[in-house]
Amino acid sequence: MKKREYCLFILLVSAIYFIGARPPSKVILVKLEDNIHSVSAQFITQSIDKADSDRAELVVVQLHTPGGLDQAMRDIITKILNSSTPVAVYVAPSGARAASAGFFIVVASDIAAMAPGTNTGAAHPVPALPFVKVEETEMDKVIKDVVAYMSSIVAKRGRNVELVEKAITESRSYTPEEALQGGLIDYISGDMQELLKVLNGKKVTKFNGQEVTLNLDSYVIEEMEMTIRQRVLSAISQPFITFILLAIGLIGLYYELTHPGLVLPGVLGAICLVLAFFAFQILPVNYAGLVLIFLAIIFFILEVKVTSYGMLTVAGIISMIFGSLMLISGPIPEMRIPLKLIIPISLAIAFITTFLLRLVVVAHRKRVTTGDAGLIGEIGMVTQELKPEGKVFVHGETWKAVVNKGGSLPKGSKVKVVRVKGLTIEVEGWSESSRPSP
Question: What local confidence, expressed as pLDDT, does residue 14 receive?
Answer without folding.
Answer: 55
